[in-house]
Specification:
293 residues, alpha+beta, nine-stranded antiparallel sheet
Length: 293
């Protein structure tokens, strides 16, 4: 009897252990997958969270209210992507390592400041729009777009871009771009047909194709700054691009040609702005943020 009783007890214990193990497996399998830790966000005086990510080679925290529109991350569907693709797309969790493809902001050329909503610069921008643009006065704000460059094989220069520009001008619009003898503000200048309209024999007055091209090369001969300006009667804007090797980024700036003499100062100030947004991998600011409200 005792041996039979012991067998029964042993069987019950084994069954009980099996049920415990099964219930543990079930419990674990039913638990949600471990979520990525929520990153630390720097915030402005109104409690608005910064936009975070990695721009080129550096992690950044962009002050709230600065971005014109929104930041696009690598892999995000384009503006004209299939709505079905957009609906299914799930962006990876935000982190200071999530690569930023591009974002834009407004830069004030006169003092190196930037537009931020709920800050004095918002009122300044609105006032300048109302008092300068309608009267044809130079607008002291530049549109800036920053692009992260992540293709390690792609060169950080405009060598091919400029070469192709000259080639297409000759083949399609029949312009020869001629280098000018004198540089302008430290830039090498090229003018379409030497600045002369071949149809009239006179200087260009209005032609979207007759932009001046201004370049700056580094010591190795690579074109790092590429500016196209419309120096005609009705057009007065410059489209300015430059590469930065440290950040591994391309920057695009659009502004009134009146401010072309400050092209180098603009490049330096924009990098200073980005440097002020740099953070540690955990999100700790490395300096005082320019543009923070």
């Amino acid at each position: 009897m005792k041996s039979g009783y012991k067998k029964i007890v042993l069987i019950v214990v084994l069954l009980w252990q099996g049920l415990l193990l099964a219930s543990c497996d079930y419990y674990l399998s039913e638990q949600p997958a471990q979520q990525a830790p929520v990153p630390f966000y720097n915030r402005d005086s109104r409690g608005r969270a910064d936009t975070i990510g990695k721009l080129g080679t550096h992690s950044i925290s962009i002050p709230a209210g600065v971005i014109d529109g929104w930041a696009r991350y690598m892999g995000d569907p384009g503006d004209f992507a299939d709505p079905k693709i957009k609906a299914k797309y799930q962006r990876p969790p935000e982190s200071y390592d999530l690569p930023i493809e591009s974002f834009g902001f407004q830069y004030r050329i006169t003092d190196g400041d930037i537009y931020t909503s709920f800050r004095q610069t918002e009122e300044d921008y609105r006032r300048d729009n109302e008092t300068l643009i309608p009267y044809g006065k130079p607008f002291p704000w530049a549109d800036v777009i920053i692009y992260g460059e992540y293709d390690v094989a792609a060169p950080l220069n405009f060598n091919f871009t400029v070469q192709n520009e000259f080639k297409l001008a000759k083949e399609i619009t029949y312009f020869d771009y001629i280098q000018q003898e004198q540089p302008l503000y430290g830039l090498t200048v090229y003018r379409a047909n030497n600045g002369i309209n071949p149809e009239t024999g006179e200087p260009w007055k209005s032609d979207a194709n007759a932009k001046d091209i201004l370049l700056k090369k580094d010591q190795a001969g690579n074109i790092k700054t590429y500016i196209k300006c419309e120096f005609t009667q009705y057009k007065n804007f410059c489209s300015h691009m430059f590469y930065n090797d440290d950040w591994h980024i391309r920057v695009s700036i659009s502004y009134n040609r009146t401010y072309l003499p400050q092209w180098q100062e603009m490049e330096g100030n924009i990098i200073k702005i980005l440097d002020s947004w740099r953070v540690s991998p955990e999100g700790k600011l490395l300096g005082k943020q320019i543009g923070k409200a």
